[in-house]
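Entry:
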Amino acid sequence: MSKEDKERLNQLLVHHLNTIHETFQVLNQTPPSSLDKGSWDDVVKLGEHLYKQATTVGMLWTGEGPDAKALEETMASYSNLLQGFLLLSHGSKIGAGTTLSACIHESVKQVIDCSFMLLKESIASYGNNSKAHKLSIPQIVGTVWDACSALKKTPGTNITAIGRSMTQIAVSVKDVLREMKELKPTINEVSKPTSNEVSKPDNDKDNDDAHESDNSSEGDLGSDLSPEEMKVAELAINVVSETLSTIKAIIRSITGLLKNPQTENESDQTVDSLEKLLVICKSMGLQVEVEKIKGNSDAFVHASNGLMSCLRELELGLGCSSDDELVSEMENLVVDD
């Protein structure tokens, strides 16, 4: 290995990485609707070619390692594939809403990040007989394979992407609800000693108090709530429970859309309404958006009405006269661990 070869390879690496990075920035832009929409299946297929090319890079280090010319050519081929992969991914974003665009961006970024790692490690390993370098190359190739395989799991439509995101929200809300149900009030009443009990010396009493103090942090979450706080907590539990019911109703509506052949070609109104369902905070708005996508909203309306009812009860429990006051009170309500 000559010093000139190493320097030239480093310069080529910087050039390739900068070019790919510039192309990747295009992925943050919304593609013009006048272009033909690309297929995500084509992106997945190109991902398979990327993995094969990454495998080729890894095979260069079998035996004594590659010469400068072979490494240069392989790096150029891999970089060209990455360029095509990015442009094809950008074309697949035509008609994609916020949620689907984010899914595509995340999946593509994983492929680019591990590919950068592979290219950098390849140049760093050139001319280096360190065993650690030779072992690192196959490991990075494995991460490229994982990232390319993950492309198959990336949602191909807006409805699927939103449905998955809504399911993740449901799981989070369910976890919150489970934790809230573990809240317990303070136990104020202390049982009086019976006549059969023998009074303990003061030092024993101190030991007992210390033992109880040590275990207090290991008890159930929020076991020191006052009766008034517990009432508010119970009202909040009802709100979270009804929120979960509302989200489940939305998911059922989305599932119905996925099974409906007529929604294969997603309309802008459908996508827009589904996107709003992910971020809207007031259930009155939720009901309007469900009606727009023309789904079976009976179960959803029932769930959202239940949510509104619980919110009103929570307002009364907190002594609030408006939604703004409710938000303020909830922010001020702190439950210690």
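Confidence is low (pLDDT under 50) at residues 189-200, 209-222, 281-286, 325-337.
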